[in-house]
Amino acid sequence: MPWDFKSDRPIYTQLIEQIELKIFSGEYPPGAKLPSVRDIAQEASVNPNTMQRALAKLEEDGLVITHRTSGRSITEDIELIKKAKNQLAKQQIAEFLEKMKLMGFEKTETLALITDMLEEMKK
Amino acid sequence: MPWDFKSDRPIYTQLIEQIELKIFSGEYPPGAKLPSVRDIAQEASVNPNTMQRALAKLEEDGLVITHRTSGRSITEDIELIKKAKNQLAKQQIAEFLEKMKLMGFEKTETLALITDMLEEMKK
DNA sequence: ACTATTGTATTAAGCGCTTAATACAATAGT
DNA sequence: ACTATTGTATTAAGCGCTTAATACAATAGT
Known about the structure:
The structure is a homodimer. By secondary structure, chain A is mostly helical. Chain A folds into two domains: 11-76, Arc Repressor Mutant, subunit A, CATH 1.10.10.10; 79-122. Helix content of chain A is 63%, strand content 7%. Chain A contains five helices and two strands; from the N terminus they run αααββαα. A two-stranded antiparallel ribbon of chain A has the order 1-2. The two termini of chain A are 28 Å apart. The model of chain A has no long low-confidence stretch (mean pLDDT 94). Chain A binds chain B through residues 8-10, 13, 21, 24-26, 85, 88-90, 92-94, 96-97, 99-100, 102-105, 107, 111, 113-115, 117-118, 121, and chain B through 8-10, 13, 21, 24-26, 85, 88-90, 92-94, 96-97, 99-100, 102-105, 107, 111, 113-115, 117-118, 121. The structure holds a DNA duplex.
């Protein structure tokens, strides 16, 4: 199935993010082999060049390892994954709180809205 | 001072968002007159055409009113503003929770992380 | 040894975003 | 009545993103 993209950001940045999420959530576990650029690009319905660009960034960050002719795999460095995951989480939270603050919501108000929505989602 | 933009999204969408935030927070109160396209564009350090594009969207949503030759002003429809504000807040929360979920954080875990960060910010 | 598969690189085209320059119509303010 | 200011429109250029087509080097797997 084609992956889900918003039209307001470059696809390659969204690919990076979505693959990161798959790694952090364990859908791509440490050491797992990734599909080839061509295959994963087709799966996501994007051009191989675009996927390549995203994978290059993930490799730069150490989350993905490239084996010249036998494809790519997720790093086995569990600590690295955990660190990256916590860093992203912190960033997400900070950005979110910042936006809510700019909208004029007090901290306690923001917290209340979240608990409300979590309650709703339980049903 | 030039406004703050990230490089991973079109400027005009960020302008829309930032002006919305100014409206919701009360920095641009209901009925207030906006600077002219040229002035506000210069303030934000963007091209007038780009600012025009953002304002056109805000006008489409009814948050901003255009007076052909005497500039623009924020709507006086307080209810409309409140509705838009709550809708954006809900969307922000939903997107945030969705991302955390995709990262593999449980709801209670996410909540704990937020309260932690709020505690930290108090200091 | 051969072959298919891997990552990688290059070129050209199309598209949207952004800027710059310029012009016009309408009217508030004098 | 005049003038400066308002929003609006148009054209051209540059840039990054994305796609498509194609090719190459390296090697796992047989």
